[in-house]
Design brief:
The chain is α+β, with helices and mostly antiparallel strands. The protein has helices at 16-20, 26-51, 72-90, 109-128, 164-174, 179-188, 202-207, 225-229, 235-260, 286-309, 336-356, 376-380, 391-406, 411-421, 425-441, 446-457, 477-483; strands at 5-13, 57-61, 64-69, 95-103, 152-153, 161-162, 214-222, 270-275, 279-285, 323-331, 363-368, 389-390. The strands form three sheets. Strands 8-9-7-10-11-12 form a six-stranded mixed beta sheet. The N and C termini lie far apart (57 Å). The chain binds zinc ion.
Length: 489
Amino acid sequence: MSNPQQWLVCFDTDRIKQYLFATNRLKEIRGGSALIVGLDEKRKATLHQQRYGANQVVYSAGGGAAVLVPTKQDAQILIAEIEREFRAQTATASITGVYLQVSTTSGKFGVEMTRAGNSLRRAKASKAELATLPVEPYMRLCNSCGQHPSVCKARDGSGDWLCQACFKKREVGHKGRKGFFDQFAKSADPNTWTEDTIPDDLDTIGSVASPPGYVGFIALDGNHIGDLLGKLDTVDSYRAFSAGLWDLTKEQTFAALKSLGRPRNGITPFEIVLIGGDDVLLITAADIALEIALAIAEGFEKNSTAKVLTPAGLSEKCAKLTMAGGVVLAHADFPIPAMYRLAEALQKLAKRFCAKQNYQTGAIDFQVVTSSDTDLDAMRQGVPHYRPYSLADLRKLLEHIRQLKSADMPTSQLQAMYQALFESKVNAQLASIATLGYLGRGTDKTRYNRLKQFFKDFGVQFDGQLPPWDAHKRSALTDLVELYPFIKS
Ligand SMILES: [Zn+2]
């Protein structure tokens, strides 16, 4: 880089998730997602090829970009152009850009990027305050999102009047293999994941799930990525970090879907809503949701050093990267925006757990939704549980469920122990002991041994300490029983 004084331009898509989940229709969410992917790809190509050359692009992925330009005027023109194009394509979504003068040879590029990131956050926050436009009372609201005035009739025979944004999303969502699914199918096997296998709606995904009608919503996010970005010294290390992170997230997501998400009865049992830099949102058949979330988080952690930290020169400052995730298991008629909000709330709890572990392990929290309640605190009130789980513990829990299932553990026994959990600590102990006693009297001790091992693996010492409680009066039994129907033996 010949000129050390340059202008750093940073972009980030505003409230991308609010844009995606403004509606409850899978096809519109898919259309919105494909529009974002298309804009991302186009922006990347423009920045790389035509304008400044690949060397000036720090990163461009996941709804954001950072690029170095020679003058302040270049920066202003670029921002205006990208913001305009984005608005034209999405109608309601927007992207924010900021610029600042930087030295690329100071050896503190991470600090400059942090400064740009802060400035970007401020710009986005002030924009958000202006985002909601008043709707005049005589305007008719969009039948889909209910947020914006409707401007045209849907062309799918539904009779819906839609706003500009929902109209675009629905148009794009109807057209075949696009966006992330197209990228996935090409990398996995385009003959298996064909256009014909794409599910029409959530009910279609639910129809091939077990138990029937249930879907999973997965939200995963890399831990403390922001802190690490500040530690990067040069443009090259920043570029290596961003590209590595993006590749790793996508690669692990695609690998998990390839092995666990094969079409059933001609239907692809998942939808890729979003893959950002280190951010993943998926909808799947309920019975593969936890396995997929776990596989992605494990693969991310395992490969993070070689794929991200070493190329960026960070392997001495950080041993590995981990992920936190939230998984919601709910009936397909539960609103998608509510699933998303619950998954985010669960992800936050998992993140807090990871922070306490100094980010040395990833974690996943999950919730089975059985009522129309949409508030996590309300759902968990008075429910003893062991969540969130470290990845290793969740792997163990799933394995115990499979073991008990293959040993034909009677669900009536599990239910009896489960009910007692909500009565009192003592009743829960009595029920667990009674079940162990009952299973221990048979000639075949398999079920007894498996149940006992489960309790042991989740903190029950058995030296005067009775199941189902561990030393902190927590129990994984609730989680085992609630997940039982969703895990295949
Ligand atoms: Zn709308």
